[in-house]
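We give this protein:

***
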Amino acid sequence: MKNKFVLIVLLLAFSATFAIAQERSNVSFGILGGVNFQNLNGELSSGDKLENDMLLGYHLGVNIQIPIAPEFYFQPGLMYSLKGAKNTYTALGSEFTDEIKINYLEVPLNLVYKAPLGSGFFMLGFGPYVAYGISGKQVFEGNSLTLERGVDYKDFDAGANIFAGFEMASGLFLQLDTQFGMLNIIPDDSSDDQSTAKNTGFGLSLGYRF
């Protein structure tokens, strides 16, 4: 219930920012989407590091760009992102895959620097994000079989964003995103409560600003 309350507060805060931004001049709106390469980094209770492969995910969403100083902007957004990790291994002569997939609603709060470059703008942004896991599953595949089950991770996540890219004069933009989760998403009441897992990843976004 507490985490759902946090999600509602985040959505209301973004909606209020959107409403205020509509009344200001020089405010722009963006839509974007793309692919992520995600992982879960951390340690097992034994002290060994998690050894996962990258999971191919995706993201899509919207943001608002509000000028705060010459060439500097505040850019809050609302994103839907698929995160997690993947493992591939061989047993009894067969190859198996084990994927963890977690769907998040995410609110990035970035500070963006935009400098003129050619006929467009170079962009550099950074800031925190907060996210809420709305669903998730673990998928096992091998020997022509597919098995699915739920996952047990904390709903709430938070971390930092860094991105760089180029925006054309037409409003079309491309950016490379990097994200570092800072919270351990292993539940506190887990029997293996010495383990840690944090979302990390990078991705490529294509968008349009108007």
